Amino acid sequence: MINDIKTIGVLTSGGDAPGMNAAVRAVTRAAIVNNIRVKAIFRGYKGLMDGEIQEFTTQDVSGIIHRGGTILRSARSEEFKTIEGRRRAYETMQREQIDALVVIGGDGTFTGARALAHEFDVPTIGIPATIDNDLWGTDATIGFDTALNTVMECVDKLRDTGTSHERLFLVEVMGRDAGFLTLNAAIAAGAEAAIIPERQAVAEQIDAAINQGQRKHKNSSIVLVQEHAIEGGAMAIAKQIEETHPEFSPRVSILGHLQRGGSPSGFDRILASRMGCAAVTALIEDQRNVMVGLQNGEIVYVPLIKAIKQKKDVKEDKWQALQVLSI
Fold first, then answer.
1. Active-site residues: which are they?
2. CATH topology of domain 145-260
3. Model pTM greater than 0.85?
4. Residues 144-167 pLDDT 10s
């Protein structure tokens, strides 16, 4: 090893995502193989400030690769957003003799990690874990594939009812301000349309979806709606449809937090395992303040600032594919 890192701290932060446990397992075992101690930090940055820390052995991460959620738990912390809070976290690291951090989460997690790294010169590696898949620099984030399959299975079941009763179903999908999960799920489930913020005005997307169904002589359709596409989400869209297209009887299904749960898919387990090992390799190679990413099937390292600040665009070919396949 070409640096002085003897102990790594690992935490999960923000919204949970299936595969986080697999990443914790990989970080722990990859570190131990390289004679580096691992200290698990519970409840994210709050736990780092409060000293909720336990040294992990390989046995501590046995039997967790298949489990959803995060055994380290997660908590949001307003205090950590302040310099005083981050100083408390750094003082905890000093007491616990933690030389570097591996943080598992999304852009909020990485924003906090970057601030801590900048202010206190802490080597930090980010592992992207969010069902939103909205981080620049990686083709996939841990949890996205599992959430995609969850949405797809729910839509498959809703289609049976929609067809039986000749109704329009609006399915609200998570994703914050990004439509990656909504668009991909719409393609996978054979939905008639996806309403996402990256494309034209919502009203135009609604009219296009309705007109498409009318051209197909359909009185039943499934439209996926990204939760923040407009104020009010799917409920507001349903009201608008009732006013402009009274011949339809829209029903709303808000999938909510069930999208974040469940046992991770094989893809997410493998991705989390690869990224966890790569995070430890990055620290051994004296890299710092980077996110582990996946591009064209290969592991890459992306500066945290780019992962946070640069906007990830929805693929145009996927949007066009949905338009073609919904005819």
1. 132
2. Rossmann fold (3.40.50)
3. yes
4. 999 999 999 999 998 887 666 667
